[in-house]
Amino acid sequence: MEYVIETKALMKRYGTKAAVNNMSLHVKKGDIYGLIGKNGAGKTTLMKLLLGITAPNSGEIKLFGGEELGAARRKIGSLVETPALYQNETALENLKRFAILAPTSDEEIKRLLAFVGLANTGAKKAGEFSLGMRQRLGLAIALLGNPEMLILDEPINGLDPAGIKEVRDVILEMNAKGVTFLISSHLLDELGKIATSYGIMADGVLVEELTASELEERSRTSVKLIVNDPALAVAALTNCHPNIQIDQSGQILRILSPVEDVSLIVEELVQSRVRIYQVISESQGVEDYFIERMGK
Ligand SMILES: Nc1ncnc2c1ncn2[C@@H]1O[C@H](COP(=O)(O)OP(=O)(O)OP(=O)(O)O)[C@@H](O)[C@H]1O
Ligand SMILES: [Mg+2]
Predict the structure, then answer these.
(1) How many H helices and E strands in the chain?
(2) Whether 293 contacts 198, CB under 8 Å
(3) Which of 84, 162, 167, 190 is the most buried (most CB within 10 A)?
(4) Is residue 259 predicted with pLDDT exceeding 90?
(5) What atom in ligand 1 is closest to the CA of residue 204?
(6) Could you tell me whether strands 197-202 and 180-185 are parallel, antiparallel, or unpaired per DSSP bridges?
(7) Residues 6 or more apart whose Cβ sits within 8 Å of residue 86
(8) SS3 of residue 88 by DSSP
(9) 191-206 tens-digit pLDDT
(10) Best mutation site among 43, 45, 78, 206 for ligand 1, i.e. most ligand atoms within 8 A of its Cβ?
(11) Rounded CA gap, 255 and 29, in Å?
(12) 199 Cβ inside 6 Å of ligand 1
């Protein structure tokens, strides 16, 4: 499998704290990869490492299958934290300034402004923009130069519901043209509408990577069993269902594969002389799944 972003054992420490801890990330071409994690999980730090804004202590970053990092990064547009705008200039003037780095025709610049919903801001200076307007202008800057990949840190932060929908549409439209996205967000519902893959981060660690369909499967119904002999139970269930996925921790088994009939599972275990202390069948929403994985 070829990845457009691949890191190996990436490490960034601030003092004794590992903001990014031994992280191995895998983003495929064409993905809309959603990074999810609580405040301080390390999302922004990871993005800064990928973009070369900050240097890792150790580990590897491979972009576009191993291109020279400088050249690879020129093909990436980004919006990380607040964009540094020229406060005394209009949206158009700002965009023209940033376009120096990626030569762009006036026509294209105007098209970009319209694309992010800033066509009618006229003479208004960036210093007078609302948070949502600044965010939109930052996005337009990120889009300059037809990037092959976009790294967006909380791109819908500060946007109103209409703005959120517009940004979502922009992302989907560009993704349909083949642009890969790495996006961080706290808004699980919003990310859930567009992401094709997820990376769940907690305290600097990439806890899990999974595709949207894996997430859907896992967040359906989960069955938890507390048994006397977990090894015997796993063997018995695997014998009956060769593809079953079971997560074991101590005497608790969690069946990750979809379970249609809990009573059948119970019967199989009883026949194998496993003693069941408790069966918990719960339907878990996507949000609950993330919250459990991110740590409470
Ligand atoms: N420049 C820095 N100096 C010292 N510590 C830092 C620095 N940048 C980040 N950190 C620490 O690294 C950890 C991860 O921070 P980071 O900003 O990457 O988290 P985040 O997931 O982006 O959080 P948020 O959701 O709040 O944006 C935090 O504990 C933070 O305090
Ligand atoms: Mg952040």
Answers:
(1) 11, 14
(2) no
(3) 167
(4) no
(5) 14
(6) unpaired
(7) 93, 94, 97, 126
(8) coil
(9) 888 999 999 999 999 9
(10) 45
(11) 31
(12) no
223 within 8 A of 255, measured Cβ to Cβ:
yes
Compute the distance from residue 278 Cα to the ligand 2 centre, in Å.
40
Range list of β-strands (E), the chain? 3-14, 17-23, 26-28, 32-37, 58-63, 76-79, 149-153, 180-185, 197-202, 205-211, 221-227, 246-249, 252-255, 276-283
- The sign of the dihedral angle between the CA atoms of 149, 151, 154, 156 is negative
Global confidence as pTM: 0.80
Q: Ligand 1 in contact with 40 (CB < 6 A)?
A: yes
Top CATH class, 1-75+148-218:
alpha beta
Backbone angles phi, psi at 215, to 5 degrees: -65, -45
State the distance from the centre of ligand 2 to the C-alpha of 269, rounded, in angstroms: 46
Given the candidates 3.30.1360.40, 3.50.50.60, 3.40.50.10800, 3.30.70.100, the CATH classification of the domain at 220-294 is 3.30.70.100
Contact 166, 117 (CB under 8 A): yes
Ligand 2: distance of its center to the CA of 153 in Å? 7
- Decide if 276 contacts 234 (C-beta within 8 A): no
Task: Tell me how far the alpha carbon of residue 27 lies from the centroid of ligand 1, in angstroms.
Answer: 22
CA of 42 to the centre of ligand 2 (A): 7
**Domain extent listing, the chain:** 1-75+148-218, 85-146, 220-294
Which numbered atom of ligand 1 lies nearest the CA of 41? 21
> What tokens were used for 19?
């903001």
Which ligand 1 atom minimizes the distance to the CA of 186?
25
* Residues 132-174 pLDDT 10s: 889 899 999 999 988 999 999 998 887 888 888 888 988 999 9
* Nearest atom in ligand 1 to 45's CA: 18
